[in-house]
Write a structure and sequence with these properties.
- The complex is a heterodimer.
- Chain A is an all-beta fold.
- Helices cover 0% and strands 50% of the residues of chain A.
- Chain B is built from no helices and eleven strands.
- In chain B, strands 2, 4, 5, 6, 9, 10 and 11 form a seven-stranded mixed β-sheet that branches.
- Chain B is globular.
- The chains are: A mainly beta, B mainly beta.
- Chains A and B meet through β6 and β10 of A and β5 and β9 of B.
């Protein structure tokens, strides 16, 4: 079945550091890929997405590129801020017909220190 | 714009008790989902619905029931609470089943079974 594996957390960085959170997936076919972010006490929010190979999703300074050859969708940001502290989830969605069903990675907790 | 609203936010139950977690969305979305999030884990799909009167099981449906009598509401019922059901529960919705559409999440219900 489909699965998503994320880099183990927690991750602690200083403000303005470079961020990479690794995400690899196993799927049949060609899934859509997502990064969701969960701020403390809140539900998940879409951060960015990519729907086909070589697509780059970007939002709020975060980027991720859909790499079919390495089955990866790593999240990057050039200079993190304290406000980026949150839990980040990588997820995939089958491209089949019918209801979208997301498969999530286990999440990576990110803490940015000033 | 309320989006997806979940009630209650917190609840403590005794083993064997029952309760209903409420979820309402005001976006006229057809598809609705219930997930559970265990500590250090990603979200797992419990049940989903593609429209009023239609529900289906997700990955971890045992111990839960759902109904969808209206487009807006998708309650989740626990009949005989067990400690293994201690978790954070999230409701989500999406306008269509398309694989590249983002799901909209509520803020969650934190449930403890003692």
């Amino acid at each position: 079945g489909n699965s998503v594996t994320q880099m183990e957390g927690p991750v602690t960085l200083s403000e303005e550091a470079f961020l990479t959170i690794n995400c690899t997936y196993t799927a049949t076919g060609y899934p859509s890929l997502f990064w969701y972010v969960q701020y403390p006490g809140e539900g998940l929010q879409l951060l960015l997405k990519a729907t086909k190979a070589d697509d780059k999703g970007s939002n709020k300074g975060f980027e991720a590129t859909y790499r079919k050859e390495t089955t990866s969708f790593h999240l990057e940001k050039g200079s993190v801020q304290v406000s980026d502290s949150a839990v980040y989830f990588c997820a995939l969605s089958d491209r089949g017909a019918g209801a979208q069903k997301l498969v999530f990675g286990q999440g990576t907790r990110l803490t940015i220190n000033p | 714009n309320a989006g997806v609203t979940q009630t209650p936010k917190f609840r403590i139950l005794k083993i064997g008790q029952s309760m209903t977690l409420q979820c309402t969305q005001d976006m006229n979305h057809n598809y609705m989902y219930w997930y559970r999030q265990d500590p250090g884990m990603g979200l797992k799909l419990i049940y989903y619905s593609v429209g009023a009167g239609i529900t289906d099981k997700g990955e971890v449906p045992n111990g839960y029931n759902v109904s969808r009598s209206t487009t807006e509401d998708f309650p989740l019922r626990l009949e005989l609470a067990a400690p293994s059901q201690t978790s954070v529960y999230f409701c989500a919705s999406i306008s269509t089943g398309g694989s590249n559409q983002p799901q909209h999440f509520g803020d969650g219900t934190r449930l403890s079974i003692l």
